[in-house]
Amino acid sequence: MTDIKNSAFQSDGADILSMTADELADFASKELGEKPYRGRQLYGWLQKGASYEEMTNLPTSFKEKLLQKCEYRLPKIVEKYVSRLDGTVKYLMQMLDGECVESVLMKYEHGNTVCVSCQAGCRMGCRFCASTLNGKSRDLRASEILGQIINIARDSKERVDGVVMMGIGEPLDNYENTVKFLKLVSSPDGLGIGLRHISVSTCGIVPKIKQLAGEGMPVTLSVSLHASDDSVRSSLIPMNRKYNIDELLDACKYYFDVTGRRVSFEYTLISGENDSLDDADRLAFVLKRKMDGPCHVNLIMLNEVKETKYQSSGRERAELFCKRLTSRGVTATIRRRLGADISASCGQLRLRYQ
Ligand code: SAH
User: Fold this and answer.
1) Which residues approach ligand 1 with their CB closer than 6 A?
2) Mean pLDDT score, 117-128
3) Is the pLDDT of residue 237 over 90?
4) Helix, strand or coil for residue 160?
5) What residues act catalytically?
6) Does domain 14-71 correspond to CATH entry 1.10.150.530?
7) DSSP-assigned states of every residue in 216-267
8) 300, 265 in Cβ contact below 8 A?
9) What is 76-353's CATH number, 3.40.50.2300, 2.40.50.690, 3.40.50.300, 3.20.20.70?
10) What is the pLDDT of residues 156-180, one digit of tens each?
11) What's the CA-to-centroid distance between 224 and ligand 1, angstroms?
């Protein structure tokens, strides 16, 4: 059963949406006195976000037991914004205990991607990020991360082809629920989203990167690098004081060697902090020296947060930076900014709502 390590979430019921099909089969027979296949039927329904009434092939007696003994409620959509520019949809979703997180549906030519949050708030303290301003309230359960996608699929009636864990929170600081979520969301009898279409983004918790490499789940690792020099990186990302760039890149190389998956690096351009051409040269140098293989740099335009002092570098500088990296043999692209009119980057909506 799911453990809620750090939880303001009070509920006596079993968290059935956090269970795999096997776990539900077991739960149905051991806890509810039903045949295991009933648990598997239930699993299929839960993954679609069906209500108990909609579960037409389950006997009423079974559903009554579920109502008594289980906790099953999807997060509630409390706000929704649709971008007029590109159709991006941003949601504010509320958990059972009132905590809110943000999730985003992004439409690309190659398919739809959902960005999910994994914690209510964040305790990583990255200086330019809105999600961390008030610290972390609690971890989300696997069911609460999954519930964001189920909600979006139901609300938008769109197919979800890919997932990025780039919303509020640090996935590797909520490791067990993240891994459980990855298992559920990729399960062929559930949403069936291929692990290769899922990205897990981290500020660089080195031992957890190594642990993730051993899970046998070939997700794309996205590492928030944002600097090529330890003093700059430490001034932006406190986690760098614990695990420096050298150790982080060693862990990335290890991830690549074990999983065969190309690691991608996120680099948010911040005016006067990390955006000089010397920074680009140093970045190319350290990546080539350490990674010695395929990797990719995603350049991100800073989304200015008024509580912080940081300013965006501007498009022109970003293009120069990108060209410089490419000329030094590192593949790089500037990330397209979706939903610019609805402030689709995460963290600010939750802050406002709080
Ligand atoms: N905790 C994870 C996920 C964070 S959000 C991580 O650190 O990777 C996903 C990306 O957005 C990260 O690279 C993060 O550093 C970046 N980010 C956070 N705030 C930003 C902002 N204001 N502008 C641009 N990028 C930002």
Assistant:
1) 124, 126, 128-129, 166, 170, 201-203, 224, 266, 268, 300, 302-303, 305, 345
2) 97
3) yes
4) coil
5) 102, 346
6) yes
7) T--PEEEEE---SSHHHHHHH-THHHHS-HHHHHHHHHHHHHHH-PPEEEEE
8) no
9) 3.20.20.70
10) 999 999 999 999 999 999 999 999 9
11) 7
